[in-house]
Design goal:
Structural class: alpha/beta
Shape: elongated
Number of strands: 4
Protein name: Cell surface hydrolase
Order of helices and strands: HEHEEEH
Mean pLDDT: 77
Keywords: Membrane, Transmembrane, Transmembrane helix
Strand content: 5-15%
Low-confidence stretches: none
Distance between the termini: 83 Å
Number of helices: 3
Transmembrane segments: 6-24
Pfam family, one: DUF915
Number of domains: 2
Radius of gyration: 25 Å
Length: 136
């Protein structure tokens, strides 16, 4: 009986090792496929791209994304706009005239807004008119 249990255990271990080798090889193949994607050329403009966080979040949700874009050389400027609960906006940072694809992280203090339709229209006016962030 002990011999039978030994052989069953040995067969299970061998099957697990073989399955692990196949899984590792498949993962390596997928990794190689990802690395073979051709690069595309990105045009440079001074038009900002705005990043808005989701409900209950903050500008930290966009930090990794904007940092990766800057690291890839697509942009050279990241600024943040803090919008308080009264709708007043404060710009942290500056977009210069020679900014390349500037990135704007918008941070709402009222991050659990329930009346999105009315309030976001108000915030849109603040960002694009009062802040003059797009007028370089």
């Amino acid at each position: 009986m002990k011999k039978k249990a030994y052989w069953i255990s040995a067969i299970i271990v061998i099957i697990l090792i073989i399955a692990g080798v196949f899984a590792f090889n498949k993962h390596q193949q997928q990794e190689n496929d990802v690395q073979s994607i051709r690069k595309t050329k990105v045009t440079s403009k001074n038009i900002p791209t705005f990043f808005f966080h989701g409900w209950g979040s903050s500008y930290h949700a966009e930090e990794d994304m904007t940092a990766a874009i800057k690291k890839a050389g697509v942009s050279n400027t990241i600024v943040r706009v803090n919008v308080n609960k009264n709708g007043q906006a404060k710009i942290i940072g500056k977009i210069t005239k020679n900014a390349k694809n500037p990135l704007v992280e918008v941070n709402f203090a009222d991050n659990k807004l329930t009346n999105a339709h009315g309030s976001y229209t108000k915030y849109q006016g603040i960002l694009f008119n009062r802040c003059k962030i797009c007028q370089m």
